[in-house]
Design goal:
By secondary structure, the protein is mostly beta strands. It is built from one helix and twelve strands; from the N terminus they run E-E-E-E-E-E-E-E-E-E-E-E-H. Strand 3 (21-27) and strand 4 form a beta hairpin.
Length: 176
């Protein structure tokens, strides 16, 4: 299935080839990272958020990072970790460019999915080296499309797309 991502001011619509909205992503609050994933009828199925884990204080508390999570009924159903590019070829032209996020590992109910950023800022989503989906390049003046296998529910794919949005904007520079 191929869906077009239509971005609004505070929301995204996932539209099928017939022009019908099949899922919607919107902010939980006016500002913030948390999002609601709704089906075509407007029923909230999933939520997503970025969670900052506590700084290491004890031996058992080893986390000092962020997690990117999809929730269903308040319980995590997918947890993602980001990896920076070790040798980012696409950023060599920029001297002051910070390392970009090149990969995300997502623990889903269906196994570990790998979301890999390509040189042209498109993405591939694989599981056990089998491609499940692709997203057309970000940061260009063309529509973004999510093309995926119909094996999983559309609202889950919308949640995965939101994790991709988090990933693609993680390394944005904020100039003050």
């Amino acid at each position: 299935m191929k869906l077009r991502i239509r971005k609004g001011i505070f929301s995204w619509s996932l539209v099928n080839e017939n022009g019908t909205t099949v899922a919607k992503i919107s902010n939980q609050k006016l500002m913030g990272a948390a999002k609601k994933i709704s089906d075509a009828k407007g029923k909230v199925i999933f939520t997503t958020d970025i969670v900052n884990l506590p700084v290491k204080k004890k031996d058992w508390n080893y986390a000092d990072t962020r997690k990117y999570i999809i929730y269903k009924d308040g319980e995590p159903v997918a947890i993602a970790n980001l990896s920076l590019d070790e040798n980012p070829e696409r950023t060599k032209a920029f001297i002051l460019r910070p390392p970009q996020v090149g990969k995300m590992n997502v623990e889903t109910p269906y196994g570990i999915w790998i979301i890999q950023r390509q040189k042209n800022n498109s993405l591939t989503i694989t599981h056990d080296e089998v491609q499940l989906a692709s997203v057309t390049p970000f940061f260009i003046f063309k529509p973004i499309y999510l093309e995926f296998t119909e094996k999983y529910e559309i609202t889950f794919w919308a949640g995965i797309y939101m994790l991709i949005e988090y990933m693609m904007h993680e390394d944005d520079l904020i100039v003050v």
